[in-house]
Amino acid sequence: MAGKKGAGVLELAVLGLLHESPMHGYELRKRLNALLGMFRAFSYGSLYPCLKQLLAKGLIVEDRPEEPNVPLALQSRRSKIVYKLTAEGKERLQQLLTEAGPAAWEDEGFGVHFAFFSHTRADVRLRILEGRRSRLEERLERLRAALARTRERVDTYTLELQNHGLESVEREVRWLNELIGRERAEQEQQTKNSSKTTPDMPRETGH
């Protein structure tokens, strides 16, 4: 189950990055490490099987640019393969960006979904943020309960570690509260603006 979740996160990350621009495999690896490395351990060994699957599904294509004055036999070895998104890949990316279920707000998936919020619908962004906050609030309750039970039985360093974990979750909940408030305010403003620009229906006048 965890493997499937990880594969889905990697698929979203690869498609999202290639949507921004075509990339060589090495460049894609670096960008993925910067993106996924903040949220979980990223294995380079998982990238190329993912690319192979995306190629087989027709979601991406390989582009081998021809090098002038280089024999054809050498080009296959020397040229860097550039990966590009296909029309089907763009459709798949949009489908993934509309998913707002638990996988989108778990530790593994939230960061990657958040990284592509600029391509995500406002209502989906809000559902993901609220789902993430709800999950963390549940985690806070468990951490506080565990801390209350063990406070008298653990040493100073273990207690400090538990407090650090608690503070980290509390900090993220505050951050999410700010983001949710901002998202709601922006959506309300957009609703007001759209209602202002909608022309009034002409009134019927009696004769």
From TrEMBL:
<keyword id="KW-0175">Coiled coil</keyword>
<dbReference type="Pfam" id="PF03551">
    <property type="entry name" value="PadR"/>
</dbReference>
<dbReference type="InterPro" id="IPR036388">
    <property type="entry name" value="WH-like_DNA-bd_sf"/>
</dbReference>
<keyword id="KW-0238">DNA-binding</keyword>
<dbReference type="InterPro" id="IPR005149">
    <property type="entry name" value="Tscrpt_reg_PadR_N"/>
</dbReference>
<dbReference type="InterPro" id="IPR052509">
    <property type="entry name" value="Metal_resp_DNA-bind_regulator"/>
</dbReference>
<dbReference type="InterPro" id="IPR036390">
    <property type="entry name" value="WH_DNA-bd_sf"/>
</dbReference>
<feature type="region of interest" description="Disordered">
    <location>
        <begin position="184"/>
        <end position="207"/>
    </location>
</feature>
<dbReference type="GO" id="GO:0003677">
    <property type="term" value="F:DNA binding"/>
</dbReference>
<feature type="domain" description="Transcription regulator PadR N-terminal">
    <location>
        <begin position="14"/>
        <end position="95"/>
    </location>
</feature>
<protein>
    <submittedName>
        <fullName>DNA-binding PadR family transcriptional regulator</fullName>
    </submittedName>
</protein>
<feature type="coiled-coil region">
    <location>
        <begin position="126"/>
        <end position="160"/>
    </location>
</feature>
